[in-house]
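Hi F.,

I've been meaning to write this up properly since the lab meeting, where we talked about keeping a consistent format for the predictions we share between groups. The idea is simple: the sequence comes first, exactly as it goes in, then the structure tokens exactly as they come out, then a line or two of notes. No screenshots and no reformatting. I'm using this chain as the first example so we have something concrete to point to.
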Amino acid sequence: MTVTTTAAGHHSASLDLGVIGNCSIAALIDRRARIVWGCFPRFDRDPVFCSLIDNHANDGDDEPEKGFFGIELVGMTRCEQSYLDNTAILSSVLSDDQGNAIEILDFAPRFVRYERFFRPPQLVRRVRRISGRPRIRVLVKPSLGIGEEPDEITRGSNHVRFVGADQTIRLTTNAPLSYVVEGTPFAVDQAYSFFIGSDEALRAEIETTSREFLDKTTDYWRDWVRSLSIPFEYQSEVIRAAITLKLCSFEETGAIVAALTTSIPEAPGTQRNWDYRYCWLRDAYFVVHALNRLGTTRTMEDYLGFITNIVDTFSESGAEHLPPLYPITRGGSLTEFEAKNLSGYRGHQPVRFGNGAAVQIQNDGYGAVVLAATHSFFDRRLIQPGKDTLFSQLERMGELAIAVFDKPDAGPWELREKEAVHAFSSVMCWAACDRLARIAGTLGRADRKEYWKAEAKRLKSIIAERIWNEQKGHFVSTFNGQDLDATLLLLAEIGFVKPDDARFVATVEAIGRDLKRGDLLLRYATQDDFGYMHTGFLICAFWYVDALNTIGRSDEAKALFGRILQRRNSFGLLSEDADLKTGELWGNFPQTYSMVGLINCAMRLSRDWEEAF
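Output, unedited:
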């Protein structure tokens, strides 16, 4: 997929962005080949490139003042961008009307070195002349702290250091350093490379290292893609989604972030601006399922390791409530605060760092952990020592699920000022008991199997009665409630009801009638802490596609899925939300949930390989 931007186009901030990374850091690149977002030395640290959330709606073609890394072709009229096939390496070809053109290759090094993965907190930008005598202007304007100018800029023979109170960033290049520092245009008469990242000296020749890193990173991604289990149909869509999901994984601990950004609002003019650079337990079940279907066992096992480490820590702590989200290293503060000095995405404030949802009561977390960990007991590809010990710890999760299944919480949508007994939370508590019975069976623990089976049966009876509304003729989102929400589409997926259960079919039909807007879905149609929804939540649309397929409306599901795929940006990526009319993407980006939804739908809707030939 190649996308073209013309200089005459509108270039205010948008989510038409490409992503590069190496499972340690990541960066977002706009349609003019500028790096506009990136945090060092990991996803959840302060952004060094922050212009994505420090701009105004009417910026137009204006250059940001800070927080970006641009390589401009003087007189550029076109920018054509595409990923190198089956990689996370982005090519940007900039050209003018005089026959001058350059290519920029952007990537983060990732490959095996000394029998372990080499993934430094570093980005590489490699520039070469394609035709004519092109001239470029390099603008490197990182921010340190949160949106602050560097305290000091120092120079060496081939590098410049941007020094802040808590971090120093180093740029190493074989381009004329004075031209780079001063933003002076110069001719591209040879290949130039730019290494930017943590303050570590490059201990080899710049051009040779750049070429080596590029070749080895290309080989790594193509080998990784070659190992994927992909459907016959939707191959390119699934490959790009899989690579993006991989880029959102923090390999050191196994955590997978909900998104790479903070404070991209869910809709214009809303206060729904959150920091998504953390790992949510709710996502665990869905992410593990997607990874399993793709056959990415290493990433799946790393992620399960992160989840089971949470179980260990929680069991040792004696805490009464399981937090719904964690930092990617499980340590540090998630205290939410606002950065007043950043103007926000298209001027939308507040800009938030940290996430207050971390202190909420969200009772579905017990089920999410147990469901994710269940793979460790059944998937023989995974090596999970101490299964009896893990089962014992998961049983405590189950006991807590029993204790809270009928208690109010903030729910799956993390309401900040309202609590209720949410159907999804209760069903996930039931799922914890149901899966514990299955695990006990595979461990030969007949007594525990019977105990958890009886508890699952008891909870299911109570929940089914309380979330069924006879008058409405469908399941509802809260105990004894009246309203719908999109998580009810998951009742068959989780196994709470059979796909052909008339109650479930009626609920899917009601959601299609009351929550569907065009090809997208609202999370719910009721007013919450911030008013009503004005954009479609993309994962809900994928859940609806799955539900349609589950109840036998497969042709309709496939047609809808094809239309939803058109909501992806020029690089094949999705954020959290989309405008109901225009389809413009809103919300944090790229959204793991959305990419997982795409993968799961594609796997279920595609013809089998055996049927294709």
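Notes:
The chain is about 35% helix and 20% strand.
The radius of gyration is 25 Å.

If this format works for you, I'll send the rest the same way.

G.
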